[in-house]
Design a protein that fits this description.
By secondary structure, this protein is mainly alpha-helical. It folds into two domains: about 1-55, no CATH class; about 60-128, AhpD-like (Up-down Bundle), CATH 1.20.1290.10. It is about 80% helix and about 0% strand. It is built from six helices and no strands. It has helices spanning about 5-15, 25-40, 40-55, 60-75, 80-90, 95-125. α1 runs antiparallel to α2 and α4 runs antiparallel to α5 (about 80-90). It is extended and about 50 Å long. Mean pLDDT is about 80; it is low at about 1-20. One of its GO terms (molecular function) is peroxiredoxin activity. InterPro entries: AhpD-like, CMD-like. This is Carboxymuconolactone decarboxylase family protein. It holds the Pfam family CMD.
């Protein structure tokens, strides 16, 4: 049996876009709203963390946007990329800056794969 909170969560989560495409910001935001209703304490903690990172003035908004985009790209999180791309546009980040940030992300991720390959080879060499 479902309660009204589960029905609300399900209804909001059903705002998906056409099959095979990015859900879109409105749908992602609706899903996040539903999660906030279902788990308010956890969502409150998340929002407190976000506010704390924005209160730290060591990085300006443009730099934070570029880092967020690069991390989202590295993790393959399309919806998160879309959210942070919107924020980067609002912060005045240029397409060249975005390209440079995600290119660096690709390079770092490739470096991680390279060192993991080296670790596999080392583990193999220690065997038998």
């Amino acid at each position: 049996m479902t309660n009204s909170n589960e029905k609300s969560l399900s209804a909001k989560a059903d705002h998906a876009a056409p099959p095979g495409g990015l859900k879109g910001l409105a749908a992602v935001k609706a899903q996040c709203d539903a999660l906030e209703e279902a788990a308010p304490a956890m969502a409150g903690g998340f929002h407190a963390m976000v506010l704390a990172t924005h209160a730290d003035k060591a990085l300006d908004g443009r730099t934070r946007s570029l880092i967020a985009l690069a991390v989202a790209a590295s993790l393959g999180q399309e919806d998160v990329m879309a959210i942070h791309a919107e924020e980067a546009r609002k912060a005045g980040v240029s397409v060249d800056e975005v390209a440079a940030a995600v290119s660096l992300s690709v390079s770092v991720k490739a470096g991680v794969a390279f060192t993991q390959a080296a670790q596999v080879l080392a583990a193999y060499s220690k065997g038998g």
